[in-house]
Amino acid sequence: MIIEGKTNKWEIVCGLEIHCQIISKSKIFSTASTKFGADANQNVSFVDAGMPGMLPTLNKYCVHQAVKTGLGLRAVINKYSEFSRKNYFYADMPTGYQITQFQYPIVGEGIVTIDLDDGTTKDIRIERMHIEQDAGKSIHDIDPHKTFIDLNRAGVGLMEIVTKPDFRSPEEAGAFLRKLRSILRYLETCDGNMDEGSMRCDVNVSVRPLGSDEFRTRCEMKNVNSVKFVMQAIENEARRHVEVYENGGKVEQETRQFDAVSGQTKAMRKKEFAHDYRYFPEPDLPPLILTDEYIKQVADELPELPDAKKARFVNELGLTKYDAAVICENKEVAYFFEKAAVGHDAKKVANWLMGDFFAMLKCKNLTIDESPVSAENLGKLVDLIEKNVISGKIAKDVFEIMSETGEEPEKIVEEKGWKQVTDSSAIEAIVDKVIANNADKVAAYKGGKTGLMGWFVGQVIKESQGKANPKMVNDLVVKKLS
Amino acid sequence: MAIDKQTVNRIAFLSRLKIDEDKTEDTQDEFNKILNWVEQLAEVNTDNVEPLSSVNDNPLVCREDKVVEGEQADKILANAPVEEYGYFVVPKVVE
Amino acid sequence: MVKLTQMTVHETLDGLKNKQFSAVELTNEYIKEIDNKKELNAYVLETPEIALNQAKKADSRYAVDAARALEGIPMGIKDLFCTKGIRSTACSHILDGFVPEYESTVTEKLFAAGAVCLGKLNMDEFAMGGSNETSYYGPVVNPWQQDKHLVAGGSSGGSAAAVAANICAAATGTDTGGSIRQPSAFCGVTGIKPTYGRCSRYGIMAFASSLDQAGPIAKDVKDCALLLNVMSGYDEKDSTSVNLAVPDFTKVLGQSVKGLRVGIPAEYRPEGLNEEISAYWDKGIEMLKNAGAEIVNISLPHTKYALATYYIIAPAEASSNLARYDGLRYGLRIPGEHLDDMYINTRTEGFGREVKRRIMIGTYVLSAGYYDAYYLKAQKVRRLIRDDFMKAFEKCDVILTPTSPTAAFPIGDKSMQENPINMWLNDVFTVSVNLAGLPALSLPIGLSSEGLPLGLQLIGKAFDEETVFKAASVIETEAKFERLK
């Protein structure tokens, strides 16, 4: 995206930092549960509450999840990593420091390929990813003079993914977030729900004159909580920078707040003294050492990721790029599709999936996991059409019943007696009957009104209660009238 | 590196401690005395020396992902100076 | 007849086993004695009811021959250890009324071995100090020449004084820069700081995480060995504890030291070292030599930088470790209009002067722009100090030095009150060991001309407490130090 200023053309330079909650049973440094929705301070260990003398212990599974994610981001896994303390006082940070990784993160540089609307792709470089603990929650709106503290979230594992400043438009950032979410969900390392806060995004924005390669002062917006808002924040913040520069001003390096209502960003109250996090190596945790064997073992467990799956659907199943991309964005959809498509006409399954099937889910407000129509049954329905057991028109009726009852399509067709008539003598009898009863129309046809052809076919199918195979009807009508 | 009054106040704030106005100078003097004393380390040649933060050479041993502690809000809150509805309560946080 | 309270742990165990007295009788004797010696200010909390309850259980175990390693032994616990259901304050105002809902691993092991809890012992606030004068509850009085009002040393001053004064059979201590060894020397008792990682730090309020270690303070070497047997061991709740088998430390006591190479570091005899201390050190060397040990001169060239290194690293870690004391979840809260005001009011009032001093120094050395010059530099020198020991241990098996450059000094000593560095200089012989993570034991060698105890220190290789105990037991036998009655 290029911003046309009054005097100049400007380019956006944007990087993202994304905090992703790690899926695990217990917290990263304590044995309390990570379950969402418990009563206040129930999922809290003495470690999470920063009680005197308590020590962190590292959750093996969180390390596994981080390595898995790193591999999914096609990133370097660092065999040596260290934990550090980031010191700051805050009500929901009980120890007065956050255990994080600073100088030696567990994951180094990687790449995420994003798909753009014009059908092209772009590689976004990952700078690093480290693991750390989440803070608790401060609740400010119960009482005008008090803040309430719930530590249930304190200590839940986070992966912080930092990109290089590779985004040149809000759309690229949006595409990245969707792709990242998709990868994380395939990996089952984070559920990626931005609205629930399990994926949170900090946005860094600056601008520069088009064609320049300089980096100008950037501003950061923390905790922007939807893809749409991230895109809005980037665009509006970039436009603000352009305006400042074009009016001869200077952009101050600062943290700004994104206001979801106005879509604008605003400066936050400046603290008297800036933060000084005083990072130093966490003395309670020795360095984390990973072996090649371990990393290989995790790599072997990696599922097929969306890009690979998409390529396979295009190359092996003959899907269009567009269809494959839509189907692969969501892991559940992709898995459903594969199950439905196996042994059937994949392209037709894709058409049904993206057409009537999605429409049905939307109409019933269901997720794919809740679908009354199973993947197997969708495949069977496509098969019935392919094998000329039912017509495409009847199939729609069958599908409607399937989505009410969840029954198998064969059973529905059987019970309703909707099986297509493919017995040519039976069809021929109907054709003969229609011709015999409509001598005037036959005469008109033979007199040159060839357009009546369709009328005859329609009459025959009607007479058969829709069950006659349309192609056979067509062939017979042509033959009889000639 | 002698430190000034402003630095003393900044360090005090970072530490969430208050130094009375009339004590700032004493604190500053004491600070400088101590810093002068520890600066003797500057004479040690530490070129090519790796910092030592962990005396044990054992790598970190990780724990299984099992829930052991929890369902103990009463114990977590037992020592709380102020507690309401199962929450810790503090004066309003100003952003 | 010898009073029950004057007996060592191993003598007491024999007496209990042979039914010469019951654990309840013994505990009652101690409770009485604690009452008689209140002016020492060694205990900050007495728990006689808990003690008697535990003693009763101990007696019932003796009755059925099911006694455990420390069954019925009345102990005092340094207030730095969190004890479940028993107020634990690190002798700081900021932990007013704090009652933990959990037990430290070390005390859990002791109580699981049958030890009886007499109460919580006085100490320097958050273990920061070398004289017990920084305690919110006031200084401990050294039981030696009590009328002179001398310090008991620190930070485990209450522990050393209580053991010396026979108001507990043994005590727990912690040692970050000498906090077990220096008070042991000042009070004429024996204490060992084991190798870093030998004992779990879980449930011990952290001062400087990379230096802190728990250990016993007791009446003799054998008691220390018995106690360390119980206190040691890997704990999955402390990632810095080390998963190594714990030997029976009592096995080596009395074994021959023939051929043992004892290192004598030149740097520990600086010009102006107290002559009496120097002479006692020589005496210790002679004792080991006469027992067949080989005396080796060694060099620990970075010794002179150990104190400055320590006083950067320890405050840095402390500044972070003590951030949790903010008045929010436990302990003292001094209200304030906004959250930051509450933090500042609470911490300013709740922490004592020395603790605040160290928090500020630590904050400074970690802050932006100074980290490399101070903290990182100190960590590099720390490696050089450890390397010195590693090289020295190629030439020797154990190192013998004095524990402290002086004997106990008067409470309220002016030069130390006015200049904190003068107080810190007391740690000159002890801090290197913490920086290197090594085991070291202090035992009494004799009395100064003024009649005050002096101690010698034995430093071992990492996880080789056995050699330290072996050499210590030789010196102990030869020194024939007379404990207070």
Which key features would you list for this structure?
heterotrimer; B: 95 residues; mainly alpha; two-stranded antiparallel sheet; 3 helices; 32% helix; 7% strand; C: 485 residues; alpha/beta; Amidase signature (AS) enzymes; 11-stranded mixed beta sheet; 16 helices; 38% helix; 13% strand; globular
Can you walk me through this structure?
The complex is a heterotrimer of chains A (482), B (95) and C (485). By secondary structure, chain A is of the alpha+beta class. Chain A has three domains: 2-297, no CATH class; 304-416, no CATH class; 424-481, Arc Repressor Mutant, subunit A, CATH 1.10.10. Chain A is 40% helix and 18% strand. Chain A has 15 helices and 16 strands. Chain A is elongated, with a radius of gyration of 31 Å. The mean pLDDT of chain A is 93. Chain B is mostly helical. Chain B has a domain at 5-42. Chain B is 32% helix and 7% strand. Chain B has three helices and two strands; from the N terminus they run αααββ. Chain B has helices at residues 5-14, 24-38, 73-77; strands at residues 83-84, 87-91. In chain B, strands 1-2 form a two-stranded antiparallel sheet. In chain B, β1 (83-84) and β2 (87-91) form a beta hairpin. The two termini of chain B are 34 Å apart. By secondary structure, chain C is an alpha/beta fold. Chain C has a domain at 4-255: Amidase signature (AS) domain (Amidase signature (AS) enzymes), CATH 3.90.1300.10. Chain C has 16 helices and eleven strands. Chain C has an eleven-stranded mixed beta sheet with strand order 1-3-2-4-6-5-10-11-9-7-8, sandwiched between helices. In chain C, a hairpin with a 5-residue loop joins β10 and β11. In chain C, α2 (23-36) packs antiparallel against α3 (48-63). The radius of gyration of chain C is 21 Å and the shape is globular. The relative contact order of chain C is 0.14. The mean pLDDT of chain C is 97. The chains are: A alpha+beta (482), B mainly alpha (95), C alpha/beta (485). Chain A binds chain C through residues 46, 49-58, 85, 87, 89, 91, 94-97, 147, 149, 276, 278-280, 283-286, and chain C through 81-82, 88, 90, 95, 98, 100-102, 104, 201-206, 208-210, 236-240, 316-317, 319-320, 322-326, 328-330, 339-340, 343, 363, 366-368, 371, 375. β9 of chain A pairs antiparallel with β2 of chain B, so a sheet runs across the interface.
